[in-house]
Structure formats: structure tokens, C-alpha cells
Amino acid sequence: MRYRDLTGKELIDAHKGERLGILGHTDLDINPETGRIDSIVIQDFSMLGLKKGDATAKVKWNDIEVIGDDMIIVKPNRHKD
Q: Is 9 a domain residue?
């Protein structure tokens, strides 16, 4: 799967049932040694697409449960580190 296939999909937290953001309005943490994605960094944007502040959240790539046609469902493992 290519990044462009993921762009525009909503990130949904399955535990809280809330929208985290849209992939494409996010940054990726990539491990420079392996070239693999470690996590998705979600910026805090307003409804107009303007950045609200420095608030960010991270979703570990391993926490992605399902990638659907319109959404990416994540189940953060709260028992890890």
C-alpha cells in the first residue's frame, strides 16, 4: 500500500470512539535505520485547517487495527511502555 492510498482517511480511536484526525494532515516518524514508520504524529488543527498550537498526539504504527476504505481504526495498547 502506498502513502497516497492512505491520505484522506480518518483516524479513529476504537477505545474512545473519537476522531483523531485525517491522515495527510499528519506527520510520520520514520526509523532512519529500518526505514519503517514508527508512528503517526497528529497536529492540533482548527476547523479551518489552521494550526491551533504546538499540541500533538502520536499513534504507534503497531496500534493500527484496520485500514478501511474511509477510515483507519486504531486501538492504542495502553499496557505498553
A: yes
Confidence band, pLDDT 50/70/90 cuts, at residue 24: confident
Q: CA dist 60 to 32, 72, 74, Å?
A: 16, 13, 9
The CATH number for 8's domain is: 2.30.30.240
Domain encompassing residue 51: 3-74
Q: Which residue has the cell 478501511?
A: 68
Considering the domain boundaries, does residue 80 fall inside one?
A: no
For the sheet with 10-13, list strands across it: 18-22, 10-13, 71-74, 64-67
- For residue 73, what are the CA distances in angstroms to 9, 20, 45, 51, 59? 10, 10, 20, 24, 11
- Per the DSSP assignment, residues forming a β-bridge with 43 are 56
pTM: 0.72
Q: What is the number of domains present in the chain?
A: 1
